[in-house]
Write a structure and sequence with these properties.
It is a single chain. With 142 residues, the protein is mainly alpha-helical. The chain has six helices and no strands. The chain has one domain. Helix content is 77%, strand content 0%. The longest helix is centred in the N-terminal third of the chain and has 30 residues.
């Protein structure tokens, strides 16, 4: 496989893995921390209308989904990429950050959560995923 093709595969795999982890955690989040009474977490209108009922614990799983999804995607990209592994990992962080910005603009959330999510869940997790992926790929070599 050519290096360019493998780097393209790193991007595709990073996005796919990150999205699967994110959606998986969001899917199970209601069974771990139930939403407030009467809120349908699968309905955007219900979420918007009832956001005032959400307490800080209701934001733990969305934050973890965003952070761990980005971490997994960045790790995968760094692990697969032939060159510029950290750039690909940080690229995953930026890609998912753009998704986070879109989500914050579409759905109201407390300012503290929006800031925490956008500042801590994406680019820092991209960097950490890159470091872990580079370390794992170097361990395979030795």
């Amino acid at each position: 496989m050519t290096p360019i093709l493998r780097n393209v595969l790193a991007v595709i795999a990073g996005i796919a893995v990150g999205m699967v982890v994110n959606l998986g955690l969001i899917t199970i989040s209601g069974s771990i921390i139930p939403p407030p009474e009467g809120v349908d977490p699968t309905n955007m209108d219900s979420l918007k209308e009832n956001m005032h009922l959400f307490q800080p614990q209701h934001f733990i799983m969305p934050f973890l989904a965003h952070a761990l999804g980005t971490l997994a995607g960045a790790f995968m990209a760094a692990l697969i990429a032939v060159s510029h592994k950290m750039k690909f990992a940080v690229g995953m962080g930026v890609f998912f950050l753009l998704g986070g910005i879109a989500a914050v603009s579409m759905m109201p959330s407390p300012l503290w959560f929006a800031v925490l999510d956008l500042v801590a869940a994406y680019v820092p997790m991209g960097i950490l995923g890159g470091k872990l992926g580079i370390g794992a790929s170097q361990a395979d070599i030795s």
